[in-house]
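Justification of computing resources. Each target in the renewal requires a structure prediction run like the one illustrated here; the chain below, 792 residues long, is used simply to show the kind of job we budget for.
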Amino acid sequence: MNYSEYFKQATGQEPYDYQTLLAESDTWPDLLEAPTGAGKTEAVVLAWLWRRRFGNDMPRRLVYCLPMRVLVEQTRKRVGTWLNNLSEAGKVDVHVLMGGEQADVDWDNRPEREVIFIGTQDMLLSRALNRGYALGRARWPLPYALLNNDCLWVFDEVQLMGSGLLTTAQLAAFRDSMGIYGTCRNLWVSATLRPDWLNTVDFHAHVSTLERRTLSDFEWQQKPLADRLNATKQLRCAASDASDPKKLATEILAAHQLNTLTLVVVNTVDRAIKLREHIEKQKKTSVGETLLLHSRFRPPDRREKISRLESMQSSGGIVVSTQVIEAGVDLSARVMFTEMAPWPSLVQRFGRCNRKGEFDVADVYWIDLTEKQIQPYDVGEVSAARAELQRMETVGPRALRDHLAGLSEDARKRLYPAPQGSVIRRKDALDLFSTAADLTGSDIDISPFVRDVDELNAHVLWREFGVDPNKPTVQPEAQRDELCPVSIGKLNAFLKKPKAKAWRWDFLDDKWESVDRIRIVPGQVYLLNAALGGYDSEQGWNADAKIVTPVTINLATPADSNNADPQSHDRFWQTLAQHTDEVVAELELILGAVSELIPAEEQTTLRDAARWHDWGKAHWVFQKALTDPGKRDPTKSEPPITLPDVWGKSKHQGDRYKRTGYRHELASALAMLQHSKSDLMCYVVAAHHGKVRTSIRSMPNETRPTDDRRFARGVHEDDPMPEVHLGSGVMAPAITLSLAPMELGLSDDGQPSWAERVLGLLDNYGPFRLAYLEALLCAADRRASAKPRGNA
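Resulting structure tokens:
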């Protein structure tokens, strides 16, 4: 099968020349310039997969990053169809990375798998910066590791990314200078690319060497692509303006063509809701369905709307949307109305009208705005766009290209200004490696590096809980399907209501804590009482909605708790030696698949780390939690066991630790240091649950010793651990634990502190490689714990 046959089997269409070149060329570009509607998604996804299969020059993870708070499920569905058609569905995983991934979403347990990730820049860039939005703190390092090693990042429609684009360039520079395992390629994609947009402080040396791929003049003439590029889209100014939604609705209904799709794009959620209400009031039955789309919906409601949108493509109707349709959405309208916006956004919107050239004539109406209504956009950028629209009569891809070619360089820069915003620096990237909880409740704010400041979101969920979510039963952590994105400003305004209160999950105490409005920060998850209102399934976030119907959730989802090891309880009895053997076996499977990425010395370190990683489970605090008679179910009593064997897993729900916050992986790492294991091996063991990484310190809620001994994370100075069997004939000796490494500076015997050891590892391996090694051990451990046991 040649690539043309391969592409046709996947999509049902012959590839365009540029799509074939992307797959078959000896080189892979850094920049891809192709007009809206030219099939960039299938070009990139299928070229990546073809080169994985037949060229062996592509990383195993494809990260498809979309700029908008977009309906990414549609892209996922298309990719899934291509994989099914190619019989690749069981070989390549596809994941949408959005807010609130649940603890049982285990894509990061399979680092050796080929994966396609599809997500927005908020979710993907926050994970690449080790601050994954809407994820529990202990889960941050896993996607951080896997999204910075062995990846191809594709940034689609980069002209819409704002400050996030600067971060993509800086991350590329950091990976190059700090080191990664495998390769991490980048492909920046746009209808109009300016390489100087990537000219950041650390990436500027690379800009002049970036390889750029564009469509040739011949391809612009080549059918069937030419049918799309030459599509007629007549442009005119709407007679109504945004200040009168009733009059504008009348004009939209008059322009709508029966049994076709009319798309109306406005710049704010509030205006979209009002306009759709007026259309609904005025329309006749023959108009068909009207649909509201924006970013403020919970996932189940968003999925339902996507399904309706897809059916409307053939049945017709009117869709009122915000900017969510600007990238990653494949639809084609006969008539379009759009509010004024910056030129890059308008070009994207025009691409959703007569997208395939299926209409002889299509109509685009632009709606003028007052200076006040232009927000959240820049007045100068919108004014520049208005000036060009007033000079144009049609806005098909060719017309847009020819018009742009006739402008001066200064005029083009006004239409496509370089992104402005905060630039992440090397020190910031190194500081973000640490995930230690700030005892004041604050963290490094990455939001300026992810998205422009005026577009910042939090995530909100609603539950019925009376006045306190921790009484009488503690509410579980947030789950993905509950979460609704809400702008920080809207949420703060909502919380001014009488009796309104927001709650945030407390990592230290494993419960919801109330927060003041001044502590509402981007990317975080907040719980609201359903009785307060704030959401409607048809309109999405709506501060005026009186009562919210909560989403049905799985109450058994384990918490990201600082004081529990849910994988060690309530499943099966297993000795520590048996569990360790299974972890070692799982690690061998992973290393066998990724061995080309990791030097032999580090592989040996990982194998030894897997053998010793749970030594700390021999501590009496952990054993007591597994077998505490206060929680024992007589039907699940443990079988007989004697030293040097101890339990690694329990079949019943043990009591919480007698010492609050006990972390067995810290005990393991401390014992290993005393047993002369390497700093790298000890770090990987300490970090494999994501809760003890760059620092060893006491926590405010810890059980303190009765004397002045050192203590941290439930481990006390001079705690004894017995001789214990670690499987395959390996015996860990009896040992008395020392917490000397938690002190700064050299210990009494001249040994460096834990902090100094970690800094040395960061110097030697860099943050991305170090995180990748800990992620591999974590994956092996979690896979071993999750293996089916029958009635074990």
